[in-house]
Amino acid sequence: MKRQSTKWRWATGSIAALLMCWTAATTAQGLPTPTAAPGARAAAPESINKAPPLAEQIQIEAGTDRQQTVVGQQIVLRVLVIGDGPLPPGRLITPNIDAVDLLILGEERRITRNAGSTNSAGNTDRAKDSASSESSSSSTDSSSNGSSNSNSNSNASSNGTDSLRERWIIERRYALFPRSAGRLEIPPSIYSAWRPGADAPEALRSEALSIEVRPAQPQPSDAVADSAWLPATALSLSEAGASSVRLAPGQVIERMLTIEAVGLRAEDLPPIRPSIPFPLQVREDAPRLWNKRGPDGVTGHRTERITLSSPETGLYQLPAVTLDWWNVDTQRWEQASTPDWQLQVAEFESASRRPAPDWRRDGDNSQPNANSAQAPPASVPEQPWVVAHWPWIIGTLGLLLMAWLLWRLYQRSALGPSRPTGHRTRPSLAQTRSTGPRHPSPSGSGS
Q1: How far apart are CA 176 and CA 184, in angstroms?
Q2: What is the C-alpha to C-alpha distance for residues 105 and 297, in angstroms, rounded to an integer?
Q3: How far apart (Å, rounded) are the C-alpha atoms in residues 346 and 170?
Q4: Which residues lie closer than 8 Å to 66 by C-beta, 6 or more apart?
Q5: Does residue 43 surpass a pLDDT of 70?
Q6: Please, which residues have CB within 8 angstroms of residue 233's CB and are 6 or more apart in sequence?
Q7: CA torsion angle for 19, 20, 25, 28 (degrees, to 10)?
Q8: What pLDDT score does 243 carry?
Q9: What number is the average pLDDT over the span 120-136?
Q10: How far apart are CA 266 and CA 256, in angstroms?
Q11: Are 318 and 343 within 8 A, CB to CB?
């Protein structure tokens, strides 16, 4: 029993010493000593240094550029993540919307600015923070005057830090294309942020949105049969090159047609099918599709290449290519078209040479005068006969020279090594000494 009482006294003394040290430390730092009010619970020590939740520091806002649309029309969804203080690590999660084609418009933007230059919403938030700090200081003033002075100093320092606090904004935009009519429900946008010291990220959500989607408008009576539904802000159909071309039989010409639609994806643009006469031979290449993305939406492009040729001569008239589309701004049907195209297949002086096409504008109806005499083709000056046939002349002379040399060689080989008559050889010195000189006798005969 004596040992147990000694241990108990030692434990209670240690606890009392720790409490006294903690009280002295808080008093030296100027912090008010927590005093429990009568009938109130004492606050846990862990709640003093507890950080505010991320929902109070970060706000998620989402909005669209229109509240009513039609099937296939573009809707720009803008998501903003606004926060104060240091930027916690996190990411925006791409929304998953039923019966909607989604396209991200570029990269997300990150803006950091001083809280003093923010909008009225930021001023309101700071006003709320200052009001809450004043209410807490007034409740503390009722306890002691010294603590009120320290609280006023701490409020002044906190206001100074608030004025220097940075506000950051993350912006991302999406292009939505509804595929069916009815009520379109856009779920809340989610920003997944990591809180310091947390084991898992915290999901912060915006408010859900709702948009009314109307069905497609009926086509007009003069519309092209089986035309696609194209709701766009602007649409153009153009062709690169001349509208009148002349070819030789067997030569080829390439037509390049392009559709440009503001507010539509390239995948939603229909193929271009111009009317081609029967005698012409046609070869179509694979289309080229690309999208141009911007902060206000997407612009789709589709280019078709068509190669034409004809083995026979003739004049071919190709009608204009037309495309019906719905203007979402004026709520009216409009039509885009290319000018009529003319192809003339005729023989040239040189089949490998093609004259320059007619590059006149579509509105220029001026035609060349048919009665005016055409300029005759430039005549090529004639060359002298010797200059035109000098290779044959040189070749003939070379053959004649070679024949004469062969004849001379044959003549020498036929005669052999015989010497010509009347030729006398002079005896050598050795032969003269051996035989000695011979002198003729006076009578004329040798002795």
Answers
A1: 11
A2: 7
A3: 64
A4: 75, 211
A5: no
A6: 262, 263, 297, 327, 328, 329
A7: 140
A8: 83
A9: 39
A10: 16
A11: yes
Phi, psi of 112 (to 5 degrees): -125, 125
Three-state SS sequence of 211-268 = EEEECCCCCCCCCCCCCCCCEECEEEEEEECCCEEEECCCCEEEEEEEEEEECCCHHH
Cα distances from 121 to residues 83, 102, 117, 128, in angstroms, run 12, 31, 11, 11
Q: Take residue 155 and report the two structure tokens written for it.
A: 């409020």
Amino acid letter at 375? A
pLDDT, tens digit, for every residue of 11-38?
676 777 777 766 665 555 554 544 544 4
Cα–Cα nearest to 242, from 393, 113, 361: 361
Residue 206 carries which DSSP code?
-
Q: Which token pair is 422? A: 């009347």
Q: Report the DSSP beta bridge partners of residue 174.
A: 77, 104
CB crowding 62-90: b at 16 or more within 10 Å, else e = bebeeeebbbbbbbbbbbbbbbbeeebeb
* Alpha-carbon torsion (237, 240, 241, 247), positive or negative: negative
DSSP for residue 153? H
Q: What is the rounded CA–CA span in Å between residue 301 and residue 190?
A: 32
Q: CA torsion sign, 163 to 52 to 122 to 165?
A: positive
Amino acid identity of 299? T
Please give the Cα distance from 63 to 8 (Å, whole number): 66
Q: What percent of the chain has pLDDT over 90?
A: 32
pLDDT surpasses 90 at 51: no
Q: What is the pLDDT of residues 76-87, one digit of tens each?
A: 999 999 988 777
